[in-house]
Design goal:
homodimer, alpha/beta, 9-stranded mixed beta sheet, 9 helices, 9 strands, 34% helix
Chain lengths: 276, 276
């Protein structure tokens, strides 16, 4: 692992690191914000999974999360959204291939060799982070935006003991029923829809829910509402009596201005869940 | 004038607008954040002038200023840093021509026809803003980063009655003595250094100072310290007994992580000065 950059921010350090990834078979880059409290010992960790087209950098520079992470003494990790590089397959569309890993382990060609974002986020990157940085394994939360909201919800429900809480900004909520999902799950996992179900937050909410609290924010003026299908997840949360909140934020769109406007609430939500 | 985009942010609206500019002889683009309080009447206005290579967009998406502007009920304007477009001269270097207007009215060819950022910021854009938006002419502040800190300080001292306060992040503080300044002032204004002096914050601080408070933040680990020459401005502020503060922030560099880390202080500083 090598440090690409380390910059002081809000009394802590915003680092960018690159490392060879076994899961993805290429070099992967991530951002890690360590709050000032990390100088004195281990700190909790909040995962931020990003959306389509994003690298590790978008949320790191646009979400405004570090100010609140420093306040609460929580580290933030900003992983990339897919394997990348000259040897990694890609697709001309923005929503498939590089920048669009969808947080699954691809089984279909040409994706199977490199596109293992589920293993990368759930196994390989945690092992690296907890080995190399002062992070408290027992105090983790996870959040994400759009495709990253999908990733956060599905990974949290698959590892219910790992995270104190899960939240999401405008998640792709019901991908097995949406054009944002059917295309990618078919490409990465093949035509058998039984293999898609463990990657659908609404279906997982119906089946198991999450033992901790769940917070979802969705902009009411989001231009992608028909692709995100928030009403399916909201209905599933209500049917399960899932602790937490599903909020429509009137007038907000799908951008980082929306994320930044509510990131303080999400940091406070995770901090409270970690303190319980 | 046309609206390029308008997005909800922190309860207000982050707009981007484009308009034909007489001063610059081309279309100019700016960002304007109106806080929620602007729905009920006129609000104060804080100018944010950006640095080399920036457009209207960098500070708008990276500085994290809107959260605090909403809290204080202050609008933010993010102008571009130069004229732009196919008909506008440019230079291969990043620090001359497009993206590097230096907040002066060029008198030398090939720059004189378009590069009038002083008039644009001090005359044309204010007239447009106060005509079209609910902004309080009598409650203005100005800040900026790097080249934009230079612009904020020099424009504030040239129009001492206009601004309640001025602040800057890592300003180019003494351009007549620095490679960041001599090159551009010579190119834009010609070899007569007497014409450069009204565009040097340190010289202006020596000559007149500013009637309101001045806040300057400078990262102690800024890689451009020798080009910025903060010690010259700090000495001039101290010699004049200028009300305000010059702060070295240990460990911080020249990036927007530095700006974002202290933007809350600057908004609070301007809000307090406007309230006096």
């Amino acid at each position: 692992m090598r440090a690409v950059s380390e910059q002081r921010a809000f009394g802590g350090v915003q680092g960018v690191y690159a490392h060879p990834s076994d899961a993805c078979g290429c070099e992967m880059t991530f951002g890690l914000y360590l709050p000032p409290q990390a100088r004195d010992g281990k700190v909790p960790l909040l995962w931020f999974l990003s959306g389509l087209t994003c690298t590790h950098e978008n949320a790191m520079v646009k979400a405004g999360a570090q100010a609140h992470a420093a306040e609460h003494g929580i580290a933030l990790v900003f992983p990339d959204t897919s394997p990348r590089g000259a040897g990694v397959p890609d697709d001309p569309a923005f929503d498939l291939g590089q920048g669009a890993g969808f947080y699954v382990n691809a089984t279909q060609d040409p994706w199977a060799e490199h596109f293992a974002m589920w293993d990368y986020i759930a196994e390989e990157l945690p092992a690296l982070l907890f080995h190399r940085f002062p992070l408290e394994t027992e105090l983790q939360g996870i959040t994400g935006h759009s495709m990253g909201g999908h990733g956060a919800l599905t990974i949290a429900m698959a590892f219910p003991e790992r995270f104190a809480a899960v939240s999401a900004f405008a998640p792709i909520a019901n991908p097995v029923r949406s054009a944002w999902g059917q295309k990618q799950l078919r490409a990465y996992l093949g035509p058998d829809t039984a293999r898609w179900a463990p990657h659908d937050a609404t279906l997982m909410m119906h089946d198991t829910g999450f033992p901790g609290p769940v917070l979802v924010d969705q902009g009411g003026a989001d231009p992608y509402l028909e692709l995100l299908m928030p009403e399916a997840l909201a209905a599933a949360m209500a049917a399960r009596r899932q602790p937490g909140a599903f909020r429509i934020q009137a007038g907000y769109d799908h951008s980082y201005f929306f994320v930044a406007s509510f990131i303080a609430d999400h940091l406070a939500f995770h901090a409270e869940a970690m303190a319980d």
